[in-house]
Amino acid sequence: MIPAIGMGTYRLKGQEVIDAVTSALKLGYRHIDTAQVYGNEAEVGQAIKQSGVPREEIFLTTKVWTDRFKHDDLLKSLEESLGKLGTDYVDLALIHWPSPNDEVDMAEYIGALNEAREKGLTKNIGVSNFTNVQLDRALALPGGDNIITNQVEVHPFLANRKVVDHCESKGIKVTGYMPLAVGKVMEDETLKAIAEEYDVTPAQIALAWVYSRNVVVIPSSTKPDHQKANLEAIKLSLSADAMMRIDGLDRGERIANPDFAPQWDE
Hints:
Layout: E1 7-8, H1 14-27, E2 31-33, H2 41-51, E3 59-64, H3 71-85, E4 90-95, H4 106-118, E5 122-128, H5 132-140, E6 147-153, H6 161-169, E7 173-177, H7 189-198, H8 202-212, E8 215-217, H9 224-233, H10 240-247
Parallel strand pairs: 1-2, 2-3, 3-4, 4-5, 5-6, 6-7, 7-8
Helix pairs in contact: 1-2, 2-3, 3-4, 7-8, 8-9
């Protein structure tokens, strides 16, 4: 249901994000990922509108920030997001992080998110940065049975195996953000060596590894040639030996770890 590869827009602003989304859609991307807190929904919407690609062909994701979790405010925040994005609906609305210190009861914001789905503001709902315990709690709540994904950090230095395996056992798709570890994969000797064997880039090897684990990848790139290479990466078939060597790079290196993050599954 969720396209296997998407264009991430984290940290991209203004004209840069317009150009990046425009280029991605031109190259064939049909999955665009944004969030309220990125401050770029209007620009993402502008790029989609100008692209000429029919809206129904694009899988568009946004995420609700933690200060909008109260029932009425969550619904209002999604209506505001739709206004900025210039669309009647998103394909996927996510809870961006679990409520810090459970300030807002999970039942309230999962219920409100499901209500947004029932109202047609979003076609699907999901969560992001949820631990296994939190995911189980969410799935058991009214409306939680409609959750289709948990978007978490996944790259060769943070395999996040416990979460990926647990989600899979529950029939929940994992969407992996920061699959290139903010560029760090390009400097790794093992990835460089494997890339040489396959005559591709270390970034392509990292993406192929994430994808081969049945995880949706959403790399963020502003350069058309990199975007094209990212698209091609998921066509790569890595050998069992290459997969094993990359598996060995896992060192629990977490990049997205704000002070309000939950107690991670390690």
